[in-house]
Design goal:
Elements: E1 17-19, E2 22-24, E3 28-30, H1 42-54, E4 59-66, E5 79-80, H2 87-98, E6 103-109, E7 125-126, E8 141-142, H3 145-165, E9 169-174, H4 180-185, H5 200-203, H6 205-218, E10 223-229, H7 241-251, E11 257-261, H8 265-268, H9 281-284, E12 295-297, H10 304-312, E13 318-321, H11 323-327, H12 331-336, H13 353-358, E14 391-395, H14 399-411, E15 414-418
Parallel strand pairs: 3-4, 3-13, 4-5, 4-6, 6-9, 7-8, 9-10, 10-11, 11-12, 12-13, 14-15
Antiparallel strand pairs: 1-2
Length: about 425
């Protein structure tokens, strides 16, 4: 049976978009997000990302990826590209994503004040000597100019390894309160009085240098993305939108793509009881007028009509998503095929976040296959056919019972669903 034709209203979402030396086949962009698998479960992680590429996401990214032991994220399981031995695991992910015609992106992370280095036990370093965020009662030491030069050199090495793995997009990360580059940018965490502190131009010096280093290393082989916080939501003491506007005047044309977010990590993944779809729009409006480079933005975007409006209104070029891509890895394909009733819409419950905090594979209330694509061979759209002619009784018509009954029905079983209430 032929797939339904795409509604012309959504054609704009399926236009190819150039990102420096590479081209995304449509406007659906799975931004970097954690998953509780990382460097510990590289094959499970790779297959999960591959399923998203199969579902139509044009760009599929990793989570934050540590690139040196002196800024590890011990206590969590994130990505890791410390040395050449880590490259094959990343190549496995790239292979899965490329198999479906999508671009693979990697987000390189140096934590500084956000990293207690519990694994490596190396004292953290930061722009200024401040307490490390989190539960660890420790202080970061102030980075010297030699430390800054070393950080740049190690970031370059990580970029080279990313290229060796085959990534198409390499991130320079200055967002979520989780990176040293943001800590240098923000007057809340940068108390220096040398060439890396004081004025915005000085506070942005390291970001500019790392962007230039990354562009030089990529040299047309991969696009360079910059993930940036547009407003820390901390008032005049932090990065405000006016500061970001000024920053774009300094470096707005350097990266091939801007990936924008608001606040700290906790703000970025607002649960549904505290946020609404496209809540970030008021913060993102006008950014595209400050740069000629494409902009990707998130905002718990689940409605195809909202997506179209944001693109047509010039708010963003790419529909950025983490949680909606978790709830339905086939969201783009279903929009393209007009199968709106089949979309598993993200409800903003944030159970996906628990995988990161419990160091266990990611899960989703809407998509039971999430995190089980490789381990159990589950797929969000394909179901194994029944193995017998048994009739199956499912007792309890709650969410789990309904999901079980539906999956069994799709496998071909005769299902009886019983509920006491």
């Amino acid at each position: 049976m032929a797939s339904p034709a795409r509604d012309p209203r959504y054609d704009v979402l399926f236009e190819p978009v150039r990102i420096g030396p590479v081209t995304a086949r449509n406007r659906f962009f799975q931004v970097p997000h954690c998953n509780g698998m990382g460097h510990r479960d590289p094959t499970a992680h790779a297959v999960m990302r591959g399923v998203k590429a199969e579902g139509g996401w044009a760009v599929v990214c990793t989570e934050e990826v540590e690139f040196h032991p002196d800024s590890d994220l011990g206590g969590f399981v994130e990505g890791r590209i410390w040395d050449d031995d880590d490259v094959p695991a990343h190549a496995r992910l790239v292979e899965q994503v490329h198999a479906h015609g999508s671009l693979a992106g990697i987000e390189l992370q140096y934590g500084g004040l956000a990293s207690g280095n519990l694994y490596g036990r190396i004292p953290p370093q930061a722009p200024s000597p401040l307490p490390v965020a989190g539960y660890e009662p420790m202080q970061a030491r102030r980075m010297t100019l030699d430390d800054i030069a070393t950080l740049r050199r190690r970031h370059r090495q990580a970029v080279r390894r990313s290229l060796a793995a085959g990534y198409d997009v390499v991130y320079v990360y200055a967002a979520h309160g989780l990176t040293t580059l943001q800590h240098f940018l923000s007057p809340r965490t940068n108390l220096r009085d040398d060439e890396y502190g004081g004025s915005l131009e000085n506070r942005a010096r390291l970001l500019r240098e790392v962007l230039e280093d990354t562009l030089e290393e990529c040299d047309g082989r991969a696009a360079v993305a910059c993930r940036i916080v547009v407003d820390e939501l901390q008032g005049a003491g932090g990065i405000e939108r006016s500061v970001t506007d000024e920053l774009f005047g300094l470096v707005g044309e350097l990266p091939d793509l801007w990936d924008v977010m608001v606040g700290y990590w906790e703000d970025d993944s607002l649960p549904s009881r505290f946020g609404h779809e496209a809540w970030t729009e008021e913060h993102f409006r006008g950014l595209k007028q400050l740069t000629s480079k494409p902009v990707v933005g998130i905002g718990w975007l689940t409605s195809p009509d909202t997506m179209v409006r944001l693109v047509r209104d010039g708010v963003v070029d790419f529909i950025g998503a983490a949680r909606p891509s978790i709830a339905d890895p086939f969201l783009p394909r279903k929009i393209e095929e007009g199968r709106f009733e089949d979309i598993r819409e993200c409800i903003g419950c944030n159970v996906c976040v628990t995988g990161d905090w419990t160091v266990t594979p990611i899960r989703c209330t809407q998509n039971p296959s999430m995190g089980e694509e490789w381990r159990r061979g589950w797929h969000p759209e394909r179901f194994r056919q029944k193995e017998s002619d048994a009739k199956v009784l499912v007792v309890g018509a709650g969410p789990a019972g309904l999901e079980a009954a539906m999956a069994l029905g799709k496998r071909g079983y005769d299902v009886v669903l019983a509920e006491a209430t």
